[in-house]
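Dear support,

We are seeing what looks like truncated structure output for some complexes. This example has two components. We would appreciate it if you could run it in full and send us the complete token output so we can diff it against ours.
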Amino acid sequence: MNFNIPFMNYRRFATIASISLLVLSVGSLGFKGLNLGLDFSGGTLIEVSYEEAADLIEIRDLMTSNGFDDFQVVNFGSNSDVLIKVADEDGNSQLGDVIYKFLQDADPSTELKRIEFVGPQIGSELRDQGGLGMLVALGMILLYVAFRFQYKFALGAVAALAHDVVIIFGLFSLFSWDFDLTVLAALLAVIGYSLNDTIVVSDRIRENFRGERGFEPHEIVNRSINQTLSRTLITSLTTLLVLLALFFFGGDMIKGFSQALIIGVLIGTYSSIYVVANMLLGMSLTQDDLAIPEPEGAEFDDMP
Amino acid sequence: MVLSIGVIYSLPNLYPAKPAIQIAYTDSGKSADQTLLNQVKDILEDQSTGVESVGLKDNNIIAKFNSFDDQLAGKAALQKILLDEAIVALNLEPTTPQWLRNIGGGPLKLGLDLSGGVHFLLEVDIDSALDNRLESLLNEYRKKFRDDRINVASSVKDNKDLVFSFASDEDYNKSLRVFNEDNLTPLGTPLYDLTTNSVRNLVELTYSQSAIKEIRDYAVGQNLMTLRNRVNELGVSEPIVQRQGSSRIVVQLPGVQDTTAAKKIIGKTANLEFRLEAASTTSRLRKEEFDWQDERMGSAFLEKNIIVSGERVTNASSGFDESGFAQVNITLDMQGGRAMQKATNGNIGRRLGVLFVEQKNKSVLTKDADGNEVIEQTSYIEKEIISLATVQAVLGTAFRITGVGSPQEASELALLLRAGALAAPMKFVEERTVGPSLGKENIELGIRSIIIGLLSVIGFMLFYYRWFGFAANIALFANVVLITGFMSLLGATLTLPGIAGIVLTIGMAVDANVLIFSRIREELKEGKDPQTAIQEGFSRAFVTIVDANVTTLIASIVLYAIGTGPIKGFAITLSIGILTSMFTAILGTRAIVNLMYGNKNIKELRV
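Here is the complete output from our reference environment:
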């Protein structure tokens, strides 16, 4: 496949799209916040399965009559599986057993699938740790890219990553999807993936900048993107293939995970084309920035 | 070479695990022997269950069965006869062939979300361990000053400080010598932080940071041991009891089916205290009133003085007395025995109480500074009488408690006593229970998504790159084998997010090949001949591949550092996957492409 799409001509449009997505995300995060999963909010979660379709109304009544008031009862996966979440802030670890007991008293066929209890203290610790981990990952990547490429590339790469992460956060907030530890894991995987793309594109930009003189920067950037486009699309496609397999066949426990990754791969592909290139042109990358011949190419050349 | 190692170590995963039962003596000091082995064989033969083999392994007896139904029937039969003598636990025994085991091969360990089971995170209450230490330290000094004829005007425990005030300058100076002498530890680090006031003859004593750390380590260590004993009593195969961070303990019980029973034993975060019942003449300051655990019994007064607490108990068992009533036999260590002897000497005919100390949580609705109602969680310690028996003779290291209720209650009390006591109370801060059916479901779903993901990528690569796609597919397949092989070799645990990691790696692993192939295409377009194009394509794509993978590796290492349990599993498979995929995609594909095109004069190359 040969591409010759004048990507950089649509720069303004892409910038507006990115900025409005970012504003929407930040706005939603600010006003609505994230729908934190059990790992971060703390509380008790219990999943049970019935032999036939479960009567949610009856279960809700049962919960109320047993003195619970802040809880959610929803179907999980199929209509015979029920997920009950109790927002319990006083850290009582016995709630799961109590609930399972009266559910089983009401219907002996109730089968316990899982109980999860996360104390309020652990929840807030995981929140802090997760946030910190994210920053550490971004920081280390910034350093690595700055060391291997040049600081303008590093800033571009990290801007692209931050862009992806904020938008995924925003979508999870906007649609009130559960944000739990697996989604956080997916986010870090997205960072890795999106970076993969970014590096490949940056690598080509660097190569072309060094190789040919006398072209406008935006022409070179455009050509680099076109040269790597088929690879970018194919890799995104294969990754999406497996993620879709995971989303449809992997079960409900990792739905949030595959969902975050699918969005991440789509946004990551877009951001590695537009955000990085835009940032580089915005910071007016010149050939002088890359003029110093780097010795690192030599040590790899003698590989078989 | 690397690939063959991968193949060999991933082999054990092809042998399915067999349902088995693990039998061990209840007394953990006694290892299984021929007698027990014969007994087990006889019992199982009588039952004519479908037992496949019975044999000794480590300190246990392992009986393998043909089916899960046979396994359950076998367990019921064994328990009926062996009773308290042995622990009978359900187990899954790998059927890895001997030659593979000899070179360290074994199947992947499954995480709790795949095997089913319970995960607990307990937090040790260091504050209350410190309080206990300070209380006993206060008593020690009071006694010492009395013996040394140092006149103490007052001595109190104030939060985390002990405050002594002395009658005269002379007493004050003498006491300083005592304190300073005690403050010297062999390591040279001070035990206490002392604040003195020579005008008012005041000494304020508090534990130093290093002493607190030592107390914490001791308390966590002691609790860890106690929990291990309790978990062993449960008879779970391959349990995990580990310290996490400074004051937390993780307990994982894979494959536990009856989770409530497990929680009941683990959750008994209890301590014990032996105290004499207060005489009616005892001053109010020296006695305390406690409720019975059995509410019908009301309450009773016990002395404030603790004779012995739970950590001195070395063994306890249930049995029957001469008239056939249930009893509990208790053995104390030397120090405990001496204390018990001293306390019961001259007190025959009085009653000895056993207090059960348990940490509980209570929530109260209070108002914060802004006047909003908030729920405030406070933990408190509940002490209840579980036994109050008349002392018949001077007690030593071994004695018995009678009148403990039903045989079942007696054995429960014995279990609690035997499992030892905790140095500090603990509370649950996290708990995850996965039912066995969900575990099985997760494995099936995980494997299905791996297969579907793998097939669709293989199909796409074949369709798009033809022969080169074929080479990439072989490399991809080798990659999956390598991942399982290395994970088995490293003893890593496979979790559901771990499976997701493998699936993700499958999708991303072809990236390196895609990069190489597009390079080859470009080289061809520039008019280079096929062999040079292949050569150039591989070497020019290499730098890009390394850069791209190293950054992903950074992200997954961070993930490993911050993640817990299942998330760590994801990080591990992702990291291993990145490394193996780099290897297979570059070297593996290269080898295959060379086989296909090497040393041939190709006129036309389709990529």
